[in-house]
Structures are given as structure tokens and as C-alpha cells.
Specification:
two-stranded parallel ribbon; single chain; Arc Repressor Mutant, subunit A; 172 residues; 2 domains
């Protein structure tokens, strides 16, 4: 199957989107976009459009098809990540507990780190036990920006959670 690539410019740096006709395989921050920004392949246009909408504040969930490669455990963790509501956070321990493996917080962290589709599968919404911002492949400054972006737009009319505080989904 032919690999396709597209780039999406964001306020916190360019994203490279890789996939096939089967679905999106990777969304990662890169130092710069491809020279001349080649045309976006039709199969990747929905992903680029949805990411642009997210960064403009108009999208809270993604509906693009994914074609993820990973272990069974990683895929289970990634499935749990998409359940974390926009503008909210969960802890590694809370996700481990939700999976019925309360002692697996480190393993959850490892799976979170290997998430190939940043933002679409919202690994940035996972924080440490004390609501600490820990680990993010795109850099902690980007994680903080993404969380602030979501909090500022979360459920207009409802007060967003205080910055840096995790929702009580952590099982602690």
C-alpha cells in the first residue's frame, strides 16, 4: 500500500501526517514542513482539515480513520486515551486502573509515549499523579500549550478546570 504524506501548519509547529488509503498511521511534530508544501493527497485531506479545525478551536473530537501499529496493550491504552474528554486530563495511574491493571502506570506511560498519532489520540491529556506535566514527545511546552488551548475553549459557558489540575479520573 502506498504511503502518503501531508503537512499541517499549527501555532506550535508543523505536523507531518502519514497514512495510506486504509487510515492515518502517524501524526508527529517536525522541525519544518516539506519544501514547497506539496499538494495534500485526497486520502489525507480529512485529517489535515480536522487538525486545522482543532487548532482554530472548532473541533474537539476526530473522526478520521486510523491504521495504528502497536502491541495489543498499546492499542488498549490508546483506546482509553480517546475517552479523555476535551479540556480534561487523566493520570497514568488512572488509566492503568481503568484498564484493570492498577500497578501498570509505567507501562501506560510507555504506551502513551509510543502513541503514533499525536493530538488525534490525545496523549497530551495524560499527566502525572500530582497533576504534573510529564513527558511529551513534542516537548512539554507543546503539551502545556495544547492543554491550555483546550481549557480555554472547553465547554463555553462552563468554567474550565484550573490549569495544572487533573480531573478526578485518576483513581487516587
Amino acid at each position: 500500500m502506498r504511503k502518503l504524506r501531508a503537512w499541517c501548519e499549527t501555532p506550535i509547529g508543523p505536523l507531518r501526517i502519514t497514512g495510506t488509503a486504509e487510515g492515518i498511521e502517524e501524526v508527529v511534530f517536525v522541525r519544518r514542513s516539506a519544501r514547497g508544501s506539496p499538494a495534500v493527497p485526497p486520502e489525507l485531506r480529512p485529517a489535515v482539515r480536522q487538525l486545522e479545525e482543532y487548532f482554530r478551536g472548532g473541533r474537539r473530537e476526530f473522526t478520521v480513520g486510523l491504521a495504528l501499529s502497536g502491541t495489543g496493550f498499546q492499542k488498549t491504552v490508546w483506546s482509553e486515551l480517546v475517552k479523555i474528554p476535551y479540556g480534561s486530563t487523566a493520570t497514568y495511574g488512572g488509566i492503568a486502573a481503568a484498564l484493570g491493571r492498577p500497578g501498570a502506570a509505567r507501562a501506560v506511560g510507555g504506551a502513551n509515549h509510543r502513541n503514533p498519532v499525536s493530538i488525534i489520540v490525545p496523549c497530551h491529556r495524560v499527566v502525572g499523579a500530582g497533576s504534573d506535566l510529564t513527558g511529551y514527545g513534542g516537548g512539554l511546552w507543546r503539551k502545556r500549550w495544547l492543554l491550555d488551548h483546550e481549557r480555554s475553549g472547553a465547554l463555553k459557558g462552563r468554567r474550565p478546570a484550573p490549569a495544572g489540575k487533573a480531573d478526578r479520573r485518576d483513581g487516587e
